[in-house]
Amino acid sequence: MELKWLEDFVSLARTGNFSRSAEERHVTQSAFSRRIQALEIWLGVALIDRSTYPTSLTPAGREFRETAEEAVRMLHGSRAALQASAQPNKQTVAVAALHTLALSFFPGWFRQIEARTGPLSSRLLPDDFHTCIQAVVEGGYDFLLTFNHPSVPILLDPVQFPHWVVGADSLVAVRSPTPTDAPLPLLSYAQNSFLGRVATFAQAQAGGPPAAVAHTNENAMAEALKFMALEGHGLAWLPRSLVGHELTEGRLIALGEAMPLEVRLYRNAGHRRAAVSAVWEAAEAVAAIMQDRNRSD
């Protein structure tokens, strides 16, 4: 049994609506439904009466609701207490970042931030899009560092989770320079991943017949696809920041037009420690400098 199943059930018991709760929990409706079913299988009873609209709880669901709500409260309370005791330094900021940004963007960007704030301790979570969103929404992290593209809207409340555009990147199709007469197969991300959805959009925009998928990387790490492309396994859509050296050295070649990406920094507005506010103000200043340079170019 997983904590997120209980959180899903508590949300559904409150909203009575699968689609609304799925949006609230930042997952697709089908994934949300599977997690509710997984909880029901684990308990061995039906919690949701799916024969009515709006959705209602079964007698077992009504009985279990109080237990689920109390368990979620106790676990989150214990986590908050443990984190507070384990991290007494108020000068620490916690950032959840997509794998690629954790490697290619965060180190240099955070150095610019510290140039304005002074030395800071940092805690970095490199993970996939959904895990990073969840980490910030649930309060364990102060900031979310993510790519953004209009084809994959980020459904965060702009009041509770404001953002600055702190950088720019692009998604580019690359392959090994090894000559081949065979059609290039596609090296793919998991379909429900952020870069997977943007890459699907980019591939469609590029025109021509869709490429056959030769390999799917289920954990959504662009770095793994880069090494598959270097070994000549096919074509991959990768952030340019991740393959800049390989393109310059000729170890990879780019195909067609790149897809522009924003780099966004989201803040949990409920976190108001001095260090968090200082990073947010510094990020605004750095973002403004970047925008001025772009306009002048």
From TrEMBL:
GO terms, molecular function: DNA-binding transcription factor activity; transcription cis-regulatory region binding
Domain spans labelled HTH lysR-type: 1-58
Keywords: DNA-binding, Transcription, Transcription regulation
Keyword hit for Cell inner membrane: no
Pfam families referenced in this protein's UniProt entry, alphabetically: HTH_1 (PF00126), LysR_substrate (PF03466)
Similarity-based family: Belongs to the LysR transcriptional regulatory family.
Name this polypeptide is given: HTH-type transcriptional regulator YjiE
Source organism per UniProt: Methylobacterium hispanicum
UniProt lineage: Bacteria, Pseudomonadati, Pseudomonadota, Alphaproteobacteria, Hyphomicrobiales
Gene responsible for this protein: yjiE_2
